[in-house]
């Protein structure tokens, strides 16, 4: 059996200690078999265990190996397409349900951290930074939209005010969301895994699902064993491969790149982000950054369509960091890594059921930290027979990429080039 370690990231280097989790050997029976020990799988498992289900998770590598343990660590509300877009797509009734759920993921994270005493450096406050007056206008309408759904922890910031929270001269204003924030994402996943095990759930690491035997009593086959279950939840997202071909056809793995500086020291770190908020800009291909608990700057951005690993991540991201913070020109980069997220053509998550007993959620399209925690709750509700919220997501339309799997990468890259050109020209 190949032992897949974590990629060499800042998160892996600063992870909390974890117990060994052996691979599955032989045959086990359970109520629910979950494929994937990232946020979607762990959140589903916790809600199910809290409601009396017997749960086993099979994970191809290690807990949080994929996007859950490699992302920018930002708690960002809503979805990759906002509620107004959803409303135009599916109408007011379904949009109302989805709109009220748009801010639930962040609350679930905070509840989990408090309930299970998860040590993951949780900090409150997230900033959306505008580079143009058009982006500022979008934030103004976004604030009105979110407040329609009862989300009131928002403050619009003019140029003077945003300078008080981020030492970057490029921004003309922004919006502060105090229910946003940031976490050490791998330690959040590890803490949730420990919570799963404390409730009797079992996690098998280094145990890829190689085949799903569909039917009245589905079976997940692994290299050295099998799991017989009443239900299966497919939660592999960008790392699912072709295990479920009908899901692979409507999504595309994409890579994003992240760098982490050497420790900056308290004084320099405080000049960059005095209140320790996280920041993302409003460009189509956005940059995002925040401080760590040991006062490093984590800076991410860029998208590689098709999820190839670029040769030199630092060469791609460091110039973006220096454009925001030229004062860091002599600072060393200690870590650079890439991770995959799953993109859908609509940029909305794909949720549904295959047959009577295989459930799935995938395609967060870059908004995964909060959405996956909500998805776990919604999937668990559906397995308990409460399907209204599940059906609201399942009713969103989904489309295959134009040109199929062969042409989805070039088509998406052309679209991204067009939108990033608009950003640069201020359209």
Could you give a short description of this structure?
This protein is an alpha/beta fold and 427 residues long. It contains 14 helices and 17 strands. The protein has helices spanning 10-13, 39-50, 83-90, 92-101, 104-115, 133-148, 159-163, 185-198, 245-248, 266-272, 313-324, 368-383, 388-394, 404-425; strands at residues 26-35, 55-58, 74-75, 123-130, 154-157, 173-182, 202-204, 211-213, 219-222, 225-234, 252-261, 278-281, 287-291, 297-305, 333-343, 350-354, 358-362.
Q: Can you walk through the features of this model?
A:
The chain has 14 helices and 17 strands. The protein has 427 residues and is an alpha/beta fold. The chain has a domain at 123-181 and 252-344: D-Amino Acid Oxidase, Chain A, domain 2 (2-Layer Sandwich). The strands form 2 sheets. Strands 3, 4, 5, 6, 11, 12, 13, 14 and 15 form a 9-stranded mixed β-sheet that branches. Strands 1, 2, 7, 8, 9, 10, 16 and 17 form an 8-stranded mixed β-sheet that branches. A hairpin with a 2-residue loop joins strand 9 (219-222) and strand 10 (225-234). The longest helix has 22 residues, at 404-425. Mean pLDDT is 90; it is low at 404-427.
Helical stretch count?
14
Instruction: Return the structural class.
Output: alpha/beta
| N-end to C-end Cα span | 52 Å
Number of strands: 17
β-sheet strand percentage: 25-35%
Organism: Pseudomonas juntendi
Keywords: Oxidoreductase
Pfam family, one: DAO
Domain FAD dependent oxidoreductase: 31-381
């Amino acid at each position: 059996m190949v032992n897949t370690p974590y990629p060499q990231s800042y998160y892996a280097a600063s992870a909390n200690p974890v117990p060994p989790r052996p691979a599955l050997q032989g045959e086990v029976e359970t109520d629910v078999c979950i494929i994937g020990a990232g946020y979607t799988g762990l959140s589903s498992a916790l809600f199910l265990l809290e409601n009396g289900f017997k749960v086993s998770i099979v994970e191809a590598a290690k807990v949080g190996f994929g996007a859950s343990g490699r992302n920018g660590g930002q708690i960002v509300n809503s979805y990759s397409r906002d509620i107004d877009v959803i409303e135009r797509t599916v109408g007011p009734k379904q949009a109302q349900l989805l709109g009220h759920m748009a801010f639930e993921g962040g609350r679930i994270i905070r509840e989990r951290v408090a309930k299970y005493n998860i040590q993951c450096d949780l900090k409150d406050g997230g900033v959306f930074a505008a580079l143009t007056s058009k982006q500022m206008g979008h934030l103004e309408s976004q604030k009105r939209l979110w407040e329609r759904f009862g989300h009131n922890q928002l403050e619009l910031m003019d140029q003077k005010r945003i300078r008080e929270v981020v030492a970057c001269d490029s921004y003309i204003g922004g919006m502060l969301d105090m229910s946003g924030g940031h976490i050490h994402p791998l330690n959040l996943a590890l803490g949730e895994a420990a919570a799963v095990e404390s409730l009797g759930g079992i996690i098998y690491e280094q145990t890829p699902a190689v085949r799903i035997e569909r039917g009245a009593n589905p079976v997940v086959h692994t290299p050295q064993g099998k799991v017989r279950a009443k239900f299966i939840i497919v939660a592999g997202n960008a790392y699912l491969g072709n295990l479920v071909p009908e899901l692979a056809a409507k999504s595309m793995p994409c890579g994003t790149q992240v760098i982490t500086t050497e420790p900056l020291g308290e004084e320099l770190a405080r000049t960059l982000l005095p209140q320790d908020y996280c920041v993302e800009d409003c460009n189509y291909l956005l940059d995002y950054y925040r401080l760590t608990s040991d006062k490093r700057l984590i800076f991410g951005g860029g998208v590689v369509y098709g999820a190839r690993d670029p040769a030199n991540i630092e060469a791609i991201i460091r110039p973006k960091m220096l454009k925001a913070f030229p004062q860091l020109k002599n600072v060393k980069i200690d870590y650079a890594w890439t991770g995959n997220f799953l993109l859908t053509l609509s940029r909305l998550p794909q949720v549904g059921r295959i047959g009577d007993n295989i459930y799935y959620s995938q395609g967060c399209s870059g908004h995964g930290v909060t959405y996956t925690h909500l998805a776990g709750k919604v999937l668990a509700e559906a397995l308990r027979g409460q399907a209204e919220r599940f059906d609201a997501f399942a009713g969103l339309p989904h489309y295959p990429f134009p040109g199929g799997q062969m042409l989805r990468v070039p088509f998406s890259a052309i679209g991204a080039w067009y939108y990033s050109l608009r950003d640069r020209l201020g359209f």
